[in-house]
Amino acid sequence: FQYLKRFDHGCNLDTFYYRAGSVEGSPAECLQQFLLHCGITDPSWAELRNFTWFLNIQLRDCEASVFCNPAFVQDTLQGF
């Protein structure tokens, strides 16, 4: 949710890292973001769950990758 919210506001996601336990927005806002970005017009709860699960895994792997660390790559992969 936090990544999607920042993406919609045009924030630089290269320097953002999720902090475990941090809470932003309301459950309604969260659901609205997921519905907006999941790519399915009328998703079931299972489809929303799969979307959030997949997105979470991808973002976690991205945060853990040295190749996505702006301090390591500096400006060589801007916007990647």
Structure overview:
The protein has 80 residues and is mainly α. The chain has one domain (1-73). 52% of the residues lie in helices and 0% in strands. It has helices at residues 2-8, 27-37, 45-64, 70-73. GO terms for molecular function: ATP hydrolysis activity; ligase activity; ubiquitin-protein transferase activity. This is RN213 ligase. InterPro entries: RNF213. One of its GO terms (biological process) is negative regulation of non-canonical Wnt signaling pathway.
Task: Outline the fold blueprint.
Blueprint: H1 2-8, H2 27-37, H3 45-64, H4 70-73
Number of β-strand runs:
0
How does the major sheet shape up? Answer: none
- Mass-distribution shape: elongated
Q: What structural category arises from helix and sheet content?
A: mainly alpha
Spans where pLDDT lies below 50 across 5 or more residues: none
Beta-strand percentage range: under 5%
- Rg, Å, rounded: 14 Å
Task: Report how far apart the termini are.
Answer: 20 Å
N-to-C SSE series? Answer: HHHH
Oligomer classification: single chain
Organism: Chloroceryle aenea
InterPro entries: RNF213 (IPR031248)
Protein name: RN213 ligase
Keywords: Ligase
